[in-house]
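Let's sit down with a protein and look at its sequence and fold side by side. We need material for that, and I hope you will provide a protein of your own picking. Once you have written the record down, we can walk along the chain together.

***
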Amino acid sequence: MATPPEPIDFKDGWEFLEQNGFSPLLDTLEEFGDAKLTFKAGQLVELSLMVYRVCSSKQSAPPPPPQREDLYRRVEKRINQYLEEKVLKAVTEKELHGEFLLKELVKRWNNHCILVGWVSNRFRFLDLYYVKEAVVPKLAVMGFRCFKETVFSQINNDVRHAVLQLVQQERSGQVVDTYLLRCIKDIFVEMGMNILPSQTHESEATGLQVYEQELEEPFLNSTKDFYRAETAKWATELSFHDFMVKAEQSIEAELTRTRAYLHQKTKNLVRKCCEEEILKHHQEHVLTKESSGLVFMLVENQKDDLERLFRLFSPMGEYGLSMIAKIYREHIEAEGNALVEAEKSKMEAQREEGGKGKGGASKPEFDCIESLLALHDRYLSLVKECFAESTIFKDATKEAFEAFVNEDFGPISTAELCANYSDSLLSQNGMGAKMDEDKIESLLDKLVLLLDYLSQKDLFMEFAQKQLAKRLLMERSVSQELERSFIQKLKLKCGPPYTMKLEGMITDINISDEHRKTFREWCNENQDVAPMDTGDNATTTTNSFKVNGIVFNAHVLKSGHWPHYEKETVKLPSPLYDCIELFQKYYCARTEARVLRWAPTLGKGVLESTAFIGNPKIGTVELTVNTYQICILLMYNEKDEIPYQEIYDGLRDQAAPEGTMYLDDDSMKQLLLTLCTKRYPLLTKKSGENGDVYALNVNWAPNKRQKTLPLPSAKITAKETRGAVHKAVEEDRKHAIESAIVRVMKHHRTLSHQHLVVEVTDKLMQLFTPEPRAIKNRIEELIQREFLRRDAEDQSLYHYIA
């Protein structure tokens, strides 16, 4: 068994360690900087063994032998001696400045790291058996502390100045040694960590204090000073475009510089510093430049610059974007108000002229909606492409459009204009007839987005309901699929309750198609009561067939889904009356719980006539007309000239009960006028002894076999009808407000007036914005009807009565 080496006298042991360890190592470091050239493996073992012998003792219990402390202190003293005599002297020579000083410091630091590593390895016995018991720093920590106290504390100001000088040179365009600067950064970091770079630290934030105070903070201050001076010139001399280019390049350069030779935690501080000095201090000045600012970019649609603007200011958060969003909103609002005023003038001029727009291609109100859609589409595109769909810009766009979209265009509201526009897109007689379905779908999508800004969505829905009824009853829809698609879009915006009637109307039309099939089957089964035509005059379509020579179809509609129409009556010719009676028998046979209320004035038909001989190439003319026009034209089977009074009386049923409503005199004249127009001169008007006489114009020469006459009874935008729509909407709003009040009070049971108004407004905002006075009136009404009661002590407090 091998015997342990005998202890040695401390003086002899240290002399051996000095002569065979420290002296050759330090000489080699001074000359070559590489400890590997100094020792062989056997020599290293001898040195470690000598450390063991010096520290050995026959003492078996604490405290540790005194020679261990002596050795620890002698090692510390030897390191300090080397640092004072060699390292400090080398880095404080007068000739060393700037980059040369930094290079020398890095060289000496690297040598010191080798020295500390060598000491830690050879004197490991001390770390294992002395450091822990004596509660002193490990040899590595002690070695770095020696460097910090002896060398670094003496030259840190000069080093910092040299670093900032090199950074300034790089900013001015010179090439600098970034690796050298990164090494200097590592030295500053290690001076706080007091450990080797390969080790970890329990509290990195505390260990970085030296780096933060001695290098990071001065670096940030110099950055602020540099860009404060530079941007003052940029803001004055450069356009906004050039300013942003410079700013973006500078910020990116600083971040690149940070990544290259500063600690990673400094990155965010550098960005914040640059944003504050480059962007924040000059934001208002450059944004409002008249010939190159934000408004100029928006007017010129400079998407690249707008995207760069957002890229620069978005890292600053809401603070950086709020001013941009404010200018953006004000510009859209100004542009929108100018557009509205221009369109108002056009529409006013159009009303004064009393005709269509140029070329008759589209009405001015349609041009107005298309202009609004184009404006909205443009700014939505900017938000998406340039502002990354940022919420603050979405909100700014919404606020701006709400400010002018709800302006009335003379007597016509935007809600009505939008309804008319959608009607034109979906009607065979409108713009949609010349478009493919994809184009219509796209325009409807844009229109629904615009509707989101309307404060009177319920008014739009009321007009839309009447127009849908007109399209369905007159069979003018471009496509039922498009109708359903549009209703679905409205449903997503306004909610299911508000499109229930529209969906019900589509359902009623589909059910009516089923009724046509079952009506035909019933007629086939009951031929004794249903005189059907056969042979050449039999069925014309799958769901239509001739009865008494008339192709008859009926729509069965639920009154709750459809607009309210005045119950006007007209005296029908006998063949039409017989068809109605027949359908009445069929329907009563199927159901006893429902009652049919006929509205023949909403119908239409096709008349075949051979009376017009002006064009010999066309023998029979097919005229698509409404029920009133059918009744008038059939009168001319008896004679060619009929006085006005006879026509007027002929449409009235003398046997009808008192109070029955008929077409008034003005409406009758308007109706006859549609048969005497220059385009459709079916009748000619002349004066007679007892008033006007209308004669059949047999010389009319139609240019094609099928003709569709204008249907004045379907027009819903007349002044009287518009007033009726507004009145109906006001009534609906009363019910909606009352319903919302009851729901809110039922939930809270007790609520103050102010909170009740706020909650009711919030519930109704999706469809319309109620006036506080209207809410107050509805509250009073509900109190009278004993749904609510006021508090006995506080009159502004309401209680719900269950």
